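Example record

One chain of 268 residues, shown exactly as stored in the release files.
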Amino acid sequence: MENVLLAFTLTLMAGLATGIGSLLAFFTSTTNTKFLSLSLGFSAGVMIYVSMIEIFVKAQDALVGALDDELGHWLTVVGFFSGMLLIALIDKVIPKQGNPHEVKKVEDMSKTKQTVSDPALLKMGTFTALAIAIHNFPEGIATFTSALQDPGLGLAIAVAIAIHNIPEGIAVSVPVYFSTGDKRKAFKLSFLSGLSEPIGAIAAYFLLMPFLNDVMFGMIFAAVAGIMVFISLDELLPASKKYDEAHLSIYGLIGGMAVMALSLLLFI
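Predicted structure tokens for this chain:
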């Protein structure tokens, strides 16, 4: 039970980082693009390394141990690409104007006075909040199941997801504040969009836990690895490059991999 509470807490903290992005939009005048580029690259490095070196291998070990060698390896690969397909389909059904991959900057807030009461912007902000909520649901499952299996691994994933949720919070707040001039409403929508991650954790607990055996665990973990790699390549790295100055995104990526590698070696 203690592990369940820890896993849920980590998932909740990762999801609510969208609110941090919203607060940054209100209380800072400019985006620190160097730091943001480095952070997003770092987050991608953590996710890619831990997915391919740790999560994928654990999934494979579980499936090979529960089944025969050949079937276990095949199912690991199927689970990995199924996770990618799931998150790709979610991205596909999200309306283009609400896609959370659209980069927004804090300084965009300065334009608000010229665009207050624009209903199109309010609609865009609402769509973005809904899109992020849908997009974050499987991330909540990924964080929760990882933390349940290995709290240290779950912590690393939660931190990486929290970092990438911060600019998503900005993406919700900017258009809503554009259209209404209401900071409270913009923060509320941003905050609520992050709640889908703990909801994903609750769904994982009640729907998946009763059936959790080695095969189910292996398939979930393989899918989690696929989801994490897809998010890193499709969302984090492109966003990092948009904020990029020089080669900060790739430095962040390598740094994230190195820190993750070191932490895994120290806590084996």
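Notes: Residues 33-66 form the longest helix (34 residues).
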